[in-house]
Amino acid sequence: MTSKTVIEHRSQPLKAHTLIAPDRSALSGARRIVVKVGSSSLTSIKGGISEEALTALADALAHKRNAGTEIILVSSGAIAAGLAPLGLEKRPRDLATQQAAASVGQGLLMARYTHAFGAHGVTVSQVLLTAEDLVRRSQHTNAFRALNRLMNLGVVPVVNENDTVATHEIRFGDNDRLAALVAHLVRADALLLLSDVDSLYDGPPSHGAKRIAHVSGPHDLDGVSIGSTGKAGVGTGGMATKVEAASMAAGSGIHALVTSTPNAAAALAGEDVGTWFSVNGARKPIRLLWLAHLASVQGTLVLDDGAVKAVRDRRTSLLPAGIAEVKGHFEAGDAVEMVSVDNTLIARGLVNYSAAELPQMLGRSTRELGEALGRGYDREVVHVDDLVLV
Fold first, then answer.
1. Continuous segment of H or E residues that includes residue 109
2. Are β-strands 48-49 and 43-44 bridged in parallel, bridged antiparallel, or unpaired?
3. Largest CA distance in the chain
4. Can you tell me the distance from the alpha carbon of 358 to that of 344, in angstroms, rounded to the nearest whole number?
5. Helix axes 175-185 and 137-152, enclosed angle (nearest 10)
6. Can you state the percent helix, strand and coil of the chain, rounding each to 5?
7. Per-residue pLDDT for 192 more than 50?
8. S-S: 246 plus which of 82, 125, 251, 256, CB 3.0-4.6 Å?
9. C-beta separation of 311 from 383 below 8 A
10. pTM of the shown model
């Protein structure tokens, strides 16, 4: 594929198709689907929440839910919905004002969803998550139980990042990534990413570019430049984050589709709309998915050749004897990168020691460290269960 610029093409819904595309039957026949909708599809800075757009989406999802499919809706829009009531002319940059807007807007958004789904006899619930809820074992187990029980009761959970309490240090960054992690958490069969973009294109549609209908793996996007945040000015993502989230899902065993919000009903019916990302990898523990794609890296461990082979080729834990250098400032439990002496990235993982503790441990065996420094220093630096190759 030649290098071209992908633009975010806004359009009316594609014409209805009568045939179900073979790959997309995984979406039409899915038992459990996570659907994500972006701020630009539901809100505008001047007009707040669009009743027409929200109602149309709720109609499509409620129809699918009443047909027996379990639906989780990951919905952006809380911050955008709170802008107009607060007299703000654009999305704020500072975290405190974003949190204030989210606090005002979340209630407005849920009130609209409650009314729109209620017209179809479908109950919705509000679920606000932080990154820690999905990466810490006890918390993500509780999150799974709650979401699973809600769906068992016929409820459509409406999920959003808990913007009011989230910090810059621990955030999903956008709801596309949140949706991919939620899909993984609840063992969804498919992920549907909706926005104001009807598909991924290999160039400007006005110049005769073609829709990219199917992505079977990362190689299909070689040389393609992906667009960023859309023109609406109320979101944080754009096509780049949707492609990243869809690729994340597909690489961990979940089919994904990227299309526009007006195409929701057609997409759920398995029609040939949008860009389909077919599964190209096996499911992974959610903690490792977060490490590979979302973790905020606090430092670097430089590995000698023997440690590189052990971690990369034999998939073992990282021991202090194989570390040549420590860079950065981090505490036990933080995410770090592991690189070779020539600075090639090997893996990411959760470290068991702080940057201040490690220098005295380098090049020494765990047995020697246990005898010299006491119990607690005979552990791995990064356990294999907390490590992901990248």
1. helix 95-118
2. antiparallel
3. 73
4. 21
5. 80
6. 40, 20, 40
7. yes
8. 256
9. no
10. 0.78
